[in-house]
Structure formats: structure tokens, C-alpha cells
Specification:
This protein is α+β, with helices and mostly antiparallel strands. The mean pLDDT is 96. The longest helix has 13 residues. The two termini are 19 Å apart. Bound molecules: shikimate-3-phosphate (S3P).
């Protein structure tokens, strides 16, 4: 894919459904009694991996591309898959399904692509083993393939060293099957879609911070009680703020632009990008704030803005962890310095996102340096196109696409097809805003 400079962007659009919520709708639907319907399901490769895994465990799932129907068989209805489960590129599939497999009366092997086989699984192996499951990293390096032998589980009180919704969710899902209550505490509150959606399905969950607001995002705990039954739900998935992020950023940095992104999820555990843009002086307006089930949703309008640097750190990080590559691009177009700290988790995402962003934005002329736990960006330098290696990481490819639209010359992204992981149609949607 070759990208060249654009001189204006405008229009109204929607982005595909939220990836985290789509995954969970399949998983919880599979464990519920009855048929769960899902509208605006993300038809990205990651969520299709979740569907494939549950089909392999005997769940009938109908997906016509607009609506997904999951004919759940209840908490004890999964069957032993005939072959190895393949999570593809999806960390959410791998870690959340592990929590479910930990409680099943069979042994399963779960793996994924080359990137998944490098991502740390010790963070779920430790707590799920404490609960009684047997989990082995078959290559002995703490990564997938994982051989998981389910067991009768015990509730635990677990203090996670990382703020990770994938870790928290794996433990909570195992906790559905445990013989007592299970509590997970994390150093800062990670996305709470599992807590919101599992309680809608009928699970009893207490969230340590009560109703989550912008003000109380901080160290947090969630407690789950053993469940007898989950009940099918009708789910409407909001647009993914992590996908909207590229359009927010490109609308702010491209001259003469105004973009409205309708129906975007703005859960306070995910809305850090909005707060960062506002702190940098962005012309960003939220309108028509409403709910989709238990998730807040809004229409977001951005206009070309003069931006200044900011500091992003602490409890804010989990609320924008997937948006940091896009924010790094934003910071290149802001006056002054942007410092990102406490974001060492970026090193263990689909690629090492600190290294990959810093090396390649530097190659485009940016003044950016990597630190142990983030990056420092001194904005205001003109960027020029180059050949970008996405490392097959969807968020890297999308970040460099929007950087390229504001750079001189040609930005070439050879393996841009990886955007299909979370945003099929990304380049077409960008194209529609050009005139
Ligand atoms: C996700 C949680 C995040 C995020 C990932 C999706 C989820 O990971 O990076 O893209 O759906 O729970 P961690 O919470 O493990 O950081």
C-alpha cells in the first residue's frame, strides 16, 4: 500500500464494532443457555478466531456478516475439540479462552501465529495454576502453544503485577467455575467490559471501584462468585474507539479537516485518547452521548487543530494502551514535547510497539526517542515518506498510514493487509474522506 500526502479530509463515518466487546460476546454467549444475538460484531480476523475456537468446541455459531447468533450450551456444554485450537494473532482469544479451558473436564492445546507464540502467557499460567488447572507451555518459554488440563477450581485472591484486562478476564472466567469467590486486584484499572457484560449475562461480580468514572480510574479489584447459569443476551456492539483513534488523529493533524465518527464506545476505561487529545488542545467534541447496553457511546467530531505536547502516564495508560502508536503520530504534529511513561506493556503487544514506532518514525524524520517504559517525542518536524515494516501488527500499519498522509513523498506499507485483524475496510474508509 502506497500512501501520499492529503490536503483535506471531511465527512461522517462509522468504524467497525469494538474488538474487545465482540470477543466477549462470543465467549459469554457460548457459555450461556439460549441464543445470544450480536449486532455490529467486528468481522476482523481476531474475532473470527474466537468464533472458530468455540465452533471447534461444539458451539453452533451463525455469522452472516451483519449479525452473529451464538447458540450457547450453558457453562458445562463445551466439548473437547478434535484438534489444536488456533487463536491466530489474538491475545484476547488466547488468554480469555485459557481461563475457560482451565475449568473444563478435558485437555486442550491452544496456540496461534508466530506473534502469539512470542507473547507472555506466564501472566495467566500463574493464577490459573493457583486455581488448580494444569497448564504447560509446550515450548518451555512461557508462551503458546499451551497444553491446558482443566480441573475443579478453587477461588483465589490474586494481585496481578500488570494492569491487564486479558489477565483479569481469564481469572474471572475461571472464577465462574470455582468453589468460592475469586478476586483479582490490578495496579490500575484495565478495561472493564468483562465485568459489565458478564453481569448482564447473570454472573455476580462486584467491582472494587463501584461505578467506574473518569475520576476513580485507579488501582481496582473485581470479585466474581461461582455461577450456576448464564443467560443469553441481545448485544449491540458499539464502534471501537481503538479504530476511531486513527480517524481522530488524522482529522486533527491534516489541514482543512473535519471528521465525525458516529457511534463510538466511550467507556471511561477506554477513553484515554479523548482526554489526551483534549489536554493537547484538540478541537474534539462529543455529542449525542447515550448507551448501548451497559456501554456508553457518543458521536465524536474532530477538526484540524494546533496541538501542544503533554505527559501521559500512570493510571491513564491502560485506558489508551492500544492507541499509543496513533498518539505517537499525533505528538509528532504537536508543538513541544510529549512524554509517555509507564507503558512497558507496549513491548509485549503484537509487536514491540515502542521499538517499532520509534525506529520508523525516526526514519521519517521525527525527533523521537525510546525510553525503558515509553517514548519522548519532540514535535514540529516535517515528516517524509519511507518504506515501513508493519511487523504484521495491525495498529502499526494503521498508524503509519495516517502519518504517511501527512508526510512528503511516498510512504510504502508492504504488508498493509494485516489491518484486517481489527479493521477490515480501513483503507477504503480513509479514502472516502478525501476529496
Ligand atoms: C484487550 C485488552 C488489552 C488490549 C487488547 C485487548 C481485551 O490487553 O491491549 O488489544 O480485549 O481484554 P491487556 O489488557 O492485556 O493490556
Amino acid at each position: 500500500m502506497n500512501i501520499t500526502k492529503v490536503h483535506a479530509l471531511s465527512g461522517e463515518m462509522t468504524v467497525p464494532g469494538d474488538k474487545s466487546i465482540s470477543h466477549r460476546s462470543v465467549m459469554f454467549g457460548a457459555l450461556a443457555k439460549g441464543t445470544t444475538t450480536v449486532q455490529n460484531f467486528l468481522q476482523g480476523a481476531d474475532c473470527l478466531s474466537s468464533i472458530a475456537c468455540f465452533k471447534a468446541m461444539g458451539i453452533n455459531i451463525e455469522n452472516d456478516g451483519t449479525q452473529v447468533l451464538i447458540h450457547g450450551k450453558g457453562l458445562h456444554g463445551l466439548s473437547n475439540p478434535e484438534s489444536i485450537l488456533d487463536a491466530g494473532n489474538s491475545g484476547t482469544t488466547t488468554r480469555l479462552i485459557s481461563g475457560i479451558l482451565a475449568a473444563q473436564p478435558f485437555t486442550t492445546t491452544l496456540t496461534g501465529d508466530a506473534s502469539i507464540q512470542k507473547r507472555p502467557m506466564g501472566r495467566i499460567i500463574t493464577p490459573l495454576s493457583m486455581m488448580g488447572a494444569q497448564i504447560e507451555s509446550l515450548s518451555g518459554n512461557g508462551c503458546a502453544p499451551l497444553k491446558i488440563t482443566g480441573a475443579h477450581l478453587h477461588g483465589i485472591q490474586y494481585s496481578s503485577p500488570v494492569a491487564s484486562a486479558q489477565v483479569k478476564s481469564a481469572i474471572l472466567l475461571a472464577g465462574l467455575y470455582a468453589d468460592g469467590e475469586t478476586r483479582v486486584t490490578e495496579p490500575a484499572l484495565s478495561r472493564n467490559h468483562t465485568e459489565l457484560m458478564l453481569s448482564a449475562f447473570g454472573a455476580k461480580i462486584i467491582s472494587g471501584v463501584g461505578d467506574v468514572t473518569r475520576e476513580n480510574c485507579g488501582s481496582a479489584s473485581a470479585t466474581i462468585f461461582p455461577a450456576e447459569e448464564l443467560y443469553a443476551q441481545d448485544i449491540i456492539v458499539p464502534g471501537d474507539i481503538s479504530s476511531a483513534a486513527y480517524f481522530i488523529v488524522v482529522g486533527l493533524i491534516t489541514p482543512n479537516s473535519e471528521i465525525t465518527i458516529k457511534n463510538v464506545g466511550i467507556n471511561p476505561t477506554r477513553d484515554g485518547i479523548i482526554r489526551v487529545c483534549q489536554a493537547m488542545g484538540a478541537d474534539l467534541v462529543l455529542e449525542n452521548i447515550r448507551s448501548a447496553g451497559r456501554e456508553p457511546v457518543a458521536d465524536i467530531t474532530v477538526r484540524t487543530s494546533s496541538l501542544h505536547g503533554t505527559v501521559i502516564e500512570g493510571a491513564m495508560i491502560p485506558t489508551l494502551i492500544d492507541e499509543i502508536p496513533a498518539i505517537a503520530v499525533l505528538a509528532c504534529f504537536a508543538e513541544g514535547t510529549t512524554t509517555i511513561r509507564d507503558a512497558q506493556e507496549l513491548k509485549v503487544k503484537e509487536s514491540n510497539r515502542i521499538d517499532v514506532m520509534v525506529k520508523q518514525l525516526s526514519a521519517m524524520g521525527a525527533d523521537i526517542e525510546a525510553t525503558e517504559d515509553g517514548m519522548i517525542i519532540r514535535g514540529g518536524r516535517a515528516l517524509h515518506g519511507t518504506v515501513v515494516d508493519s511487523h504484521m501488527d495491525h495498529r502499526i500499519a494503521m498508524s503509519f498510514a495516517i502519518a504517511g498522509m501527512n508526510s512528503d513523498g511516498i510512504t510504502e506499507i508492504p504488508d498493509a493487509g494485516c489491518v484486517d485483524i481489527s479493521y477490515p475496510g480501513f483503507f477504503e474508509d480513509l479514502q472516502k474522506l478525501q476529496y
